[in-house]
Amino acid sequence: MTSAETATTAAPDARIERRAKRIAKHLSSFAAQHGGSADGVVEYVGRTATRIVVVGADGTWGDQVAPTYAIGRRAAELAGLTLHDDFEGELGLKVKTGPYEWKRMAGIQI
């Protein structure tokens, strides 16, 4: 591989790493504010985007959207999230929902 080819393949990797670090900063901040650690799941949204759902140690949850799965997965790893395969079971039981979430889930029915 020539140096030009190496630079071309390294550029996307560097871009992925920069974006992942930016998202990881937000995820780490969330974890610090909600008990110091967090669990999460990385899921596709549409064809390319990815949603990282994060649940703090205190049960508070939030999310971040990444442009690709690779960036989302890397951001979760950099943030030190304990990743789960899906949102059901153990991870779902950790989530604490309040009146706001219940109203949002019910829509205008309440």
Q: Work out the count of structural domains.
A: 1
Shape: globular
Question: Radius of gyration over alpha carbons?
Answer: 17 Å
Spell out the helices and strands N to C: HEEEHEHH
Q: What order do the strands of the largest sheet run in, or round the barrel if closed? A: 3-2-1-4
Give the CA-CA distance, first to last residue.
63 Å
Q: Taking all residues together, what is the mean pLDDT?
A: 85
From the helix content, strand content and strand pairing, which structural class follows?
alpha+beta
Query: What summary fits the major beta sheet?
Result: 4 strands, mixed
Describe the structure.
This protein is of the alpha+beta class and 110 residues long. The chain has four helices and four strands, in the order αβββαβαα. It has helices at 3-33, 69-78, 90-94, 99-106, and strands at 38-45, 49-56, 61-66, 82-83. It has a four-stranded mixed beta sheet, with helices on one face. A hairpin with a 3-residue loop joins strand 1 and strand 2 (49-56). The longest helix is centred in the first third of the chain and has 31 residues, at 3-33. The chain is globular. The relative contact order is 0.17.
Topology summary:
Blueprint: H1 3-33, E1 38-45, E2 49-56, E3 61-66, H2 69-78, E4 82-83, H3 90-94, H4 99-106
Parallel strand pairs: 1-4
Antiparallel strand pairs: 1-2, 2-3
Helix pairs in contact: 1-2
Task: Give a brief rundown of this model.
The protein is an alpha+beta fold. The protein has helices at 3-33, 69-78, 90-94, 99-106, and strands at residues 38-45, 49-56, 61-66, 82-83. It is built from 4 helices and 4 strands.
